[in-house]
Design a protein that fits this description.
Layout: H1 2-16, H2 21-29, E1 33-38, H3 39-45, H4 51-57, E2 60-69, H5 70-73, H6 77-89, E3 93-100, E4 103-112, E5 115-124, E6 128-136, H7 143-152, H8 154-165, E7 178-180
Parallel strand pairs: 1-7
Antiparallel strand pairs: 1-2, 2-6, 3-4, 4-5, 5-6
Length: 181
Amino acid sequence: MKTLSLLLLAAIPVFVSAQTKTTEELDKKYEGLSLYFYKNTLRMLNQTDDKNFDELIRDIEKMKFMMIDKPKSNFGDADYKKLKSGYRSESYEEMMTSRFQGRNFDVYIKQSDGRVKGTVIIASDSANLYVLDIIGRVALDKATSLFSTLNQSTDIGQRMKSFVSDGDKPRGKKKHGVKID
C-alpha cells in the first residue's frame, strides 16, 4: 500500500503538467499541424541570440503549437466560442484580447498558489486558427512575438508555410504531435 501511494504521489506532477484537455480535444477533432516544443527547442529557435526572446521563453517548460486551416476543417465562429469556453471550464482566466497583424489574439492563464502554471494563446484570422498551449508562463505584453519567432524560424516556418500552401493537394491522414526536441 505504501509503495502504491508513493507511486501515485510521484505521478501527480506528470498529470498536472499535461496540456489542456481542450487543446487535446481540438487536436483530435480537427485536421491540422501539431508541434511540441520543449525549452531546449525554443532556445534553438532563437537563431539571432535575441536576449528578449530568451527572456520570453525563460518560464516555458513545454509548448504545443497547433495550426488549423479553418475553411477546410469547417471551423467557424461557434467552434471558436466553444473553444474559449473549454479553456474557461478548465479554470483558465481570460487575461487579454488584442489584434496584431490581422489576427485576433486571446490569452488565457491558469494560476496555482499565486503563480501562473499554464498559458494558452489563441490567434485567429480568416484562414487559420493558431493555438499555443504552454506549460509555464509568457509575459503577456510579448505573447505576439512568440508567433513571429515561430514563423521566422527556418524549419518551423517552412512547415507552417507548407501546411498553409498545401492548398489543392490532398493531405491524407493527419500526423498528430510532431515532437521536436
